[in-house]
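Narrative of activities, Objective 1.

The group set out to show that a structural description can be obtained from nothing but a protein's sequence at a throughput compatible with the screening campaign. Below is one input-output pair from the validation batch, recorded exactly as produced.
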Amino acid sequence: MSNDNTYHYCTILDRFMKKSINEVEVWDQFRAGDQQAFSVLYSHFVQPLYTYCMGITSDKDLIKDCLHDLFVEIWKNHASLGPTTSVKFYLMASIKRKIVRQLETQLKNLNHHDAYQYQFMEDMPSAERQLVMIEEERITQSSMYQSLSKLSKRQREAITLKYFENMDTDQISEQMNINPQSVYNLIFGALRVMKEQMTMRACAC
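Output recorded for this entry:
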């Protein structure tokens, strides 16, 4: 069964699940090595987790890969997992860490690419390098400010505090009078919008 068909099947299955499972009991059965309990956990949580991840990134393939890896890993390590009072929150925290690590890796790769380009620029004649850098900076700033205009007021505020005022999450949380999770959601949502907007403009050039 393909990944798309699996998620479609689980969506349909969720609609027919008239009552919620006793997730703590099923989790304990799963930790004891019960494969049926593992299947119940997967069927019950995979679609809500997928929806949750869409609030972090719009990269559907990345989400599906991370979900696959998460369930493979928890089955592989089921005997060493501890008890929990909320399987849902445990899985949400786990998938969030996976998604964030993957996004950070992508960002590092992008920075590595930028560093390579910078080294290439260093080998260019000084006058020509300066002209190219000035033009690239102008284009980047223009694209960035246009992307910022597509954000909501709260998203712009969070981005400004984070990247222009150099505040950490707790400081932003206090400044905006919201909890840290809301700060995280605002910033990741804003970065997703900006990335999409800047990518669209780059492709149009």
